[in-house]
Amino acid sequence: xxxxxxxxxxxxxxxxxxxxxxLSALGIQDRSFDKELMEVYGPENYxxxxxxxxxxxxxxxxxxxxxEANKSFPSVQVASGGSGTPGANATIVIAAASxxxxxxxxxxxxxxxxxxxxxxxxxKITQVNKTTPNAHTATIAPLLATDAFxxxxxxxxxxxxxxxxxxxxDTREGISDITRKVTNTITEFREDFTITDKxxxxxxxxxxxxxxYYKYRGTKQTEKRFLGSMEDKLVxxxxxxxTNIANGTKGTKGMLSQVGSGGSTLDYAAGALDIADFQxxxxxxxxxxxxxxxxxxxDQYQFQEIQDALFAKYxxxxxxxxxxxxxxxxxxxxxxxxxxxxxxxxxxxxAPFSPAWKYGVxxxxxxxxNFGVAIPxxxxxxxxxxxxxxxxxxxxxxxxxxxxxYAWDHGGLSSKGTNGKLSVTNSFAAYRGLQLKAANQCVIxxxx
Length: 448
Hints:
Elements: H1 20-26, H2 46-52, E1 56-58, E2 63-69, E3 75-81, E4 90-94, E5 112-116, E6 122-129, E7 137-142, E8 156-162, E9 179-185, E10 187-196, H3 197-201, E11 203-208, E12 211-213, H4 214-236, H5 255-262, E13 264-268, H6 275-287, E14 293-298, H7 300-311, H8 327-332, E15 335-340, E16 343-349, H9 355-358, E17 371-377, E18 379-381, E19 388-390, E20 392-396, E21 405-410, E22 423-436, E23 443-447
Parallel strand pairs: 1-20, 13-23, 14-16
Antiparallel strand pairs: 2-9, 3-4, 3-8, 4-7, 5-6, 5-8, 6-7, 10-22, 11-12, 14-17, 15-16, 17-23, 18-19, 20-22, 21-22
């Protein structure tokens, strides 16, 4: 099958700004042809939509953060140990991953009743030894004399609390919750477009907003690239740690980086996506207390698979529209919605996952082929401040005196005539980052 591939590249850098020779080379001066230039690409920006939904908040500092609590009920993973004898005490060594603070602390305490996750056998901790970092031990007596307390390596002990304490019980050690501090940083965005005097005066063969001059077209495309640049960094971005990159930028962790490190990844057989894959995702939502509405961004291939796998078989139930601003807004911004169990999914075909769509290149091995990411939409309270905020939010620093985006012109042809050169430069600048709370509720769905 032959697929149309748009001409490349789609833009070039012209030294010293777009000039008359550049316009002549494109052959776009006015010749009384069709006055409307058709846009090739449709809406691309999920972060722009997020802002429009009001999930957009100022931060006073370059670094911003929030706190997240862990599960209220601890568990530990077993490294080794067991009694092998019904009713006998068992000595259990817990895995290094169940320790913190250099391996010196763990949730083990005398009096705790624990359950072997795989077998359901219950026991009570009678002694604890924490002298060896990352290898704390617990002596555990089974509650039933007929049970042998024999957990397998890598199994879990689930904490049930201080139960079966007997008469005249005394004070036990308490368990202190560990709260995680989740940080990110604001990064810098900039885009410029310069056009010379003769190029700005020359009429072109289509009108742009009723004005047949390239400077309006060039400025609008620059604005689109500027917004696209912010979208790209907020979704795909990484911190900047290489000191060869100048000016002290720190970069920012994008949405996928945060989901990849703090969320879950589900694999499926590309071409065979089915309801079972979404049921597996829903189990993750349930286990992590996710809210009822879920945004999911998909590349073209996965989006089409979802339509084939789900929409032909399932009818829309009582769909929640809160997170997309209503049914009409969902359609306007390209969402397709369906309720599965007690969750409403809002799927969006996301151009930046598909290089052929966004860039006009055919990439058979694109990184985000058969790819999607699910972001439950909820409200979360920051333990530090008490503030309630959405799961995903765009954070920004204000440009003093100009707001969240600073757009200005400069040069001899600018509104202020800032120098003697007959050209005008339109510039855009902004400072933004993305805050994702409860990344553990988010899921990457990857086909292979």
